[in-house]
Amino acid sequence: xxxxxxxxxxxxxxxxxxxxxxxxxxxxxxxxxxxxxxxxxxxxxxxxxxxxxxxxxxxxxxxxxxxxxxxxxx
Length: 74
Description:
Helix content: 25-40%
Number of strands: 2
Number of helices: 3
Radius of gyration: 17 Å
Distance between the termini: 28 Å
């Protein structure tokens, strides 16, 4: 966000980046869309629970409880 604040192409981008940099809390959400109906021929490529566990281990200092969501389970 810092480069966006400095090199923004218009003032609205610069103001948005400034507001984000002032935030006290940061939440990480991964929006992962996959086919709702699974089959043996086309199984789900990515297991959301495994992604959430890996994401939790990688970004624990930033957000200890990241979320992996999809529109069918919101």
